[in-house]
Design brief:
The protein is mainly β and 121 residues long. The chain has no helices and 10 strands. The radius of gyration is 13 Å and the shape is globular.
């Protein structure tokens, strides 16, 4: 079973940057495409970005395209989300999860605790 722990969130002013990390335990991390998701208060969880198992291919929600960059380091069992030009509407709890590549379909039925990102105006 893949265990995931998100970190790196915080409070930042609009226009600022944060880098989120997703630490995975388990030998099968590099078998999975990975995705980042977020959930704002009162809203449903939404897809943010995805990356292939190799890291060669990425895809993004339109709302973050050009501002966020997803990456991974399979040797370290880590996935990352670099967030630049942050906006108040990016405020949410961010989660990582294995996905079917090219989609927002999550391959597990559990979530980590997530990491809170708060962007002030």
């Amino acid at each position: 079973q893949l265990q995931l722990v998100e970190s790196g969130g915080g409070l930042v002013q609009a226009g600022g940057s944060l880098r989120l990390s997703c630490a995975a335990s388990g030998r099968t991390f590099n078998m999975y495409a990975m995705g980042w998701f977020r959930q704002a208060p009162g809203k449903e969880r939404e897809f943010v970005a995805g990356i292939s198992w190799s890291g060669d291919n990425t895809y993004y929600a339109d709302s973050v395209k050009g501002r966020f960059t997803i990456s991974r380091d399979n040797a370290k069992n880590m996935a990352y989300l670099q967030m630049n030009s942050l906006k108040p509407e990016d405020t949410a709890v961010y989660y990582c999860a294995p996905v079917a590549f090219g989609t927002a379909k999550v391959l597990v039925d559990y979530w980590g605790r997530g990491t809170q990102v708060t962007v002030s105006s």
